[in-house]
Inverse folding.
């Protein structure tokens, strides 16, 4: 991941530092409370490509992404690309749960993972949080297409706060590590799990507080380390303050 952030995001988010910090306009009901309050857990559809978007970065090979009854499969071949699912509507989220499996190997050691030249992770599951930051006229004109796409995910009258990533490390020693990405204040990362010897993983990302989420941003990268592997997501569930009940996003 570091390769494309170094070449694209550093310059892009340098531009974004000039973005207007305009207050959002969250919808409220007649009692003055947010219209996106507690909702049942959302089961994200992984067996169909409906609603999903696969972007690419200039000069970097993209992934091969497939949807099947087995789930969402991302084939990483020394590649990097964001896989995005805009939610049908913004919702308040407290945690995200996911499970699946990895085949192949991410060629990085725990002491180097995340450093310059080794910023690849088999999976970083990101929540795009609604916030006040928007692109101004110059930002919309000069920012790379994928940055404009990130901000286009904001609901009407609002902007983007950050992307909170929950990731898989390569060693149990990494679990609990967290950082603001050194190249962007908009990218926050936390290692929450590692895959087992058989490649299977279960992960739960707990937000520090309830956050309004407008999209899911999946990152699986092998461009820095020249790695080849496949990650298959079998389940992603977004949970809000009230975990009662369950709903499935439209498009399944």
């Amino acid at each position: 991941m570091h390769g494309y952030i170094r070449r694209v995001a550093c310059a892009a988010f340098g531009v974004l530092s000039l973005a207007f910090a305009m207050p959002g306009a969250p919808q409220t009901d007649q009692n003055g409370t947010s219209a996106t309050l507690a909702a049942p857990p959302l089961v994200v559809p992984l067996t169909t490509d409906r609603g999903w978007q696969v972007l690419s970065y200039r000069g970097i090979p993209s992934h091969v992404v497939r949807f099947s009854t087995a789930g969402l499969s991302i084939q990483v071949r020394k590649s990097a690309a964001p896989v995005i699912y805009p939610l049908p509507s913004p919702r308040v989220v407290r945690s995200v749960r996911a499970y699946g499996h990895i085949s192949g190997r991410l060629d990085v050691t725990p002491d180097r993972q995340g450093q310059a030249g080794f910023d690849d992770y088999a999976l970083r599951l990101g929540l795009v949080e609604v916030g006040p930051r928007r692109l101004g006229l110059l930002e919309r004109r000069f920012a790379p297409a994928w940055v404009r796409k990130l901000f286009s995910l904001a609901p009407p009258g609002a902007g983007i706060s950050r992307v909170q990533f929950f990731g898989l490390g390569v060693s149990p020693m990494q679990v609990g590590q967290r950082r603001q990405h050194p190249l962007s204040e908009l990218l926050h990362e936390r290692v929450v799990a590692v895959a087992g010897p058989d490649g299977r993983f279960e992960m739960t990302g707990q937000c520090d507080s309830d956050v309004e989420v407008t999209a899911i941003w999946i990152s699986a990268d092998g461009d820095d380390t020249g790695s080849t592997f496949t990650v298959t997501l079998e389940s992603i569930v977004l949970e809000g303050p009230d975990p009662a009940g369950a709903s499935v996003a439209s498009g399944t």
User: Anything to note?
Assistant: The first strand starts at residue 42 and ends at 43. Helices lie at 2-16, 137-142, 145-152.
